[in-house]
Amino acid sequence: MLTNQEVAETLLERFGEQVYDFDEPYGLLTLSTTREEIIPVLEFLKNHKSYQINFLTDLTAVHYPDDAGREFAVVYHAHSLVQNFRIRIKVFIAEADIHIPSATGLYACANWMERETYDFYGILFDGHPNLTRILNIEEMDYFPMRKEYPLEDATREDKIDALFGR
After folding, report:
1. pLDDT-based confidence at 49, cuts 50/70/90?
2. 73: domain CATH number?
């Protein structure tokens, strides 16, 4: 049976300091890498003769507006259908340089996931064959999942603060 420890040690042996921040929330092996290494790491895991992590389950982003130089995390969830093993890989990027390589060359399903991530967060996937909005209209000049707007409409007068615990 494939263990988190085994995969983590193999990744450290192969990529050294380019893989870091290992953790196991709820038993899910989680780590971080750089944008330069994300495709080699995914490719290594996919083509490894034992691991066969060949299914990209999800690709999304998270916005951390207060984390200077690391405002966005692009998050990959991958799965080995053979070993029934899952892994999460994070890549932190700065808002000033919001580019990351496309994974469409490794996983065809990354096409729509990257388009959705671009559509909602503005992440630019270099090498993507058709990086256009997928759910929102092309004319939108903002990215709705960024934490750039207040959570509530301060102009509303129909809400009673006591009902919201205030």
Report:
1. very high
2. 3.30.460.80
pLDDT at 162 over 80: no
Position 114 scores a pLDDT of 98
9 domain residue, yes or no:
yes
Please choose, from the candidates 55, 98, 104, 57, the residue with its C-alpha nearest in 3D space to the C-alpha of residue 74. Answer: 98
Three-class SS string for the chain?
CCCHHHHHHHHHHHHHHHEEEEECHHHCEEEEECCCCHHHHHHHHHHCCCCCCCEEEEEEEEECCCCCCCCEEEEEEEEECCCCEEEEEEEEECHHHCEEECCCCCCCCHHHHHHHHHHHHCCEEECCCCCCCCCCCCCCCCCCCCCCCCCCCCCCCCCCHHHHCC
Give the predicted TM-score (pTM) of the model: 0.90
Q: Residue 63 CB: number of other CB atoms within 10 A?
A: 19
Per the structure block, which two tokens stand in for 58?
A: 């999800």
Number of domains in the chain: 1
Predicted local distance difference test score (pLDDT) of residue 139: 93
* Residue 147, token pair as written in the block: 């934490």
What residue numbers bound the domain in which 80 lies? 4-149
Q: CA–CA separation, 118 vs 121, rounded Å?
A: 5
Quote the CA–CA distance of 155 and 149 in Å, as a whole number: 14
